[in-house]
């Protein structure tokens, strides 16, 4: 068998982009490139006009933009697998293959011995749970769901290392058959130099309360609870809600219908995804950030590590978030205002409580920032990832080959 070398990091995600997945990917491949070198990043190019030419990303990392054509997710996933196989042909075995989903991971898991010494399966979400939220039309396709679960099980059982950002997800993976010794929890991080801390704005009766929701504009993330909380607030005081995130065509129609007259009144602002520095600045222009995750299987069974929660905590803007285990593992009631999940009324009451108690927001702000600096910097996440790879048997490249600027700025999306 041919000797193995290098790391292949494959992801069925668009890169680069403002989305949290792309931020996560960049942080991880930068860490692997700096520590070990020889990293090949294979990810979807961000848009039809983006270059398909391989290019250096940072020292030790080469980015290979990939295609995924098709009218639906299944067709795109199959196209991505075909393009990955074409890229891989006649290449030597890798020391490590790192995958982020079954869409690229399943073919690797099946041929693991031929392709790599070690397989790393990074689990941020599993399609058997998440797909019905993104594509409701597949929820009743029992045959497809059985295939998804079988492919997930193959990746889970064949992986030498499973990485997840959530304690809740780690517990779920063990229930699905993963050996606890192979599971590592590495929470998401925050770009501390981008999401700089600033004290909360002073509440004044002269201006409307300004709220922020960023992320996926779907019910499983709770955007509808944020909108309904705004309606309740506006019955008593002026308020504006800014919604930032990607919107597919059908999602836009649903969201516009839900907002209705609020849009006409200028009470809801819709914005496309923003670069990290622009999003950080928007945090400081708002009075509170909403993270209204509902109690569903995606949030409570599978688990998640909401990057928007950590970024808001870092920025200093008071956070109102659902009182769920995935939130409590990241923030205590002394750091974030926790409310009953699925309750727009509880969100509205929290806003009014913050407004009526001017010392509460700054206290939450200070403690939240301290928690993020201690536990959730990207530097901490990168160090944890490198340690996990060393446990797999990877050896750091000689110190003379490593970048000298160990205190470099956190990566931007």
From TrEMBL:
Keyword Transferase: yes
CDD domains: GT4_PimA-like (cd03801)
Keyword field: Transferase
SUPFAM superfamilies recorded: UDP-Glycosyltransferase/glycogen phosphorylase (SSF53756)
GO biological process, alphabetically ordered: lipopolysaccharide biosynthetic process
Entry GO MF terms: glycosyltransferase activity
Domain Glycosyl transferase family: residue ranges: 205-369
InterPro entries: Glyco_trans_1, Glyco_trans_4-like_N
Keyword Transferase set for record: yes
All residue ranges annotated as the Glycosyltransferase subfamily 4-like N-terminal domain in the record: 19-193
Name by which UniProt lists this protein: Group 1 glycosyl transferase
């Amino acid at each position: 068998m041919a000797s193995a070398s290098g790391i292949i990091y494959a992801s069925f995600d668009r890169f680069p982009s403002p989305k949290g997945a792309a931020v996560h990917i960049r942080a991880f491949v930068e860490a692997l490139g700096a520590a070990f070198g020889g990293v090949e990043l294979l990810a979807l190019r961000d848009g039809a006009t983006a270059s398909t030419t391989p290019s250096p990303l940072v020292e030790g990392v080469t980015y290979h933009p990939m295609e995924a054509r098709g009218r639906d997710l299944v067709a795109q996933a199959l196209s991505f697998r075909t393009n990955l196989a074409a890229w891989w042909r006649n290449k030597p075995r890798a020391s490590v293959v790192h995958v982020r989903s079954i869409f690229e991971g399943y073919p690797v898991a099946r041929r693991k011995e031929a392709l790599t010494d070690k397989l790393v399966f990074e689990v941020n979400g599993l399609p058997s749970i998440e797909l019905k939220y993104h594509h409701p039309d597949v929820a009743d396709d029992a045959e497809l769901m059985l295939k998804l679960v079988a492919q997930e099980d193959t990746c889970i059982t064949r992986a030498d290392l499973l990485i997840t950002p959530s304690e809740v997800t780690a517990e779920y993976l063990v229930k699905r058959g993963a050996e606890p010794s192979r599971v590592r929890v590495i929470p998401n991080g925050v770009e501390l130099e981008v999401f700089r801390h600033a004290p909360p704005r002073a509440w004044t009766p002269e201006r409307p309360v300004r709220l922020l929701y960023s992320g996926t504009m779907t019910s499983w993330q709770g955007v509808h609870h944020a909108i309904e909380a705004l309606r309740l607030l506006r019955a008593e005081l002026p308020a504006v809600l800014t919604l930032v995130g990607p919107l597919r065509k059908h999602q836009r129609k649903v969201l516009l219908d839900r907002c209705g007259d609020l849009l006409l009144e200028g009470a809801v602002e819709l914005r496309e995804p923003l670069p990290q520095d622009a999003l950080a600045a928007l945090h400081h222009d708002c009075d509170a950030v909403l993270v209204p995750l509902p109690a569903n299987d995606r949030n409570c069974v599978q688990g998640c590590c909401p990057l928007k929660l950590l970024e808001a905590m870092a920025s200093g803007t008071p956070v109102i978030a659902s009182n769920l285990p995935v939130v409590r593992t990241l923030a205590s009631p002394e750091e974030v205002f926790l409310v009953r999940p699925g309750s727009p009324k509880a969100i509205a009451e929290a806003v009014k409580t913050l407004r009526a108690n001017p010392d509460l927001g700054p206290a939450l702000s200070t403690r939240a920032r301290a928690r993020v600096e201690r536990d959730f910097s990207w530097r901490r996440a990168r160090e944890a990832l490198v340690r996990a790879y060393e446990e797999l048997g990877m050896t750091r490249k000689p110190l003379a080959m490593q970048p000298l600027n160990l205190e470099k700025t956190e990566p931007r999306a």
